[in-house]
């Protein structure tokens, strides 16, 4: 346990931003306590609680875990290989936007003239 605490203390100096370091410190101490009390099970439960909390948060109405968290099959198609912009007609469903089309078709704009 002494080795784990010393490694985490030395690793905390890697983070240059003080605000980020304070946030990680708030996660590190409870994780060390659960790991010392419950062992590997405590680490797994602690990580599960952290991941569940992160996936439940939203920023500007968009989930932190998008496109994974509220999984829509249409949003998962652009994760590994991205299609060219011309082929992507609709916006991701996880954004909850009123206008679901990315842009008007070229044919529509030429007919308007």
Automatic annotation (TrEMBL):
Signal peptide span: none
Cellular localisation: Membrane
GO biological process per UniProt: spore germination
Protein's membrane topology: Multi-pass membrane protein
GO cellular component: membrane
Transmembrane parts of this sequence: 31-55
Key words of the record: Membrane, Transmembrane, Transmembrane helix
Family note: Belongs to the GerABKA family.
Protein name (record): GerA spore germination protein
Source organism (scientific name): Bacillus thuringiensis
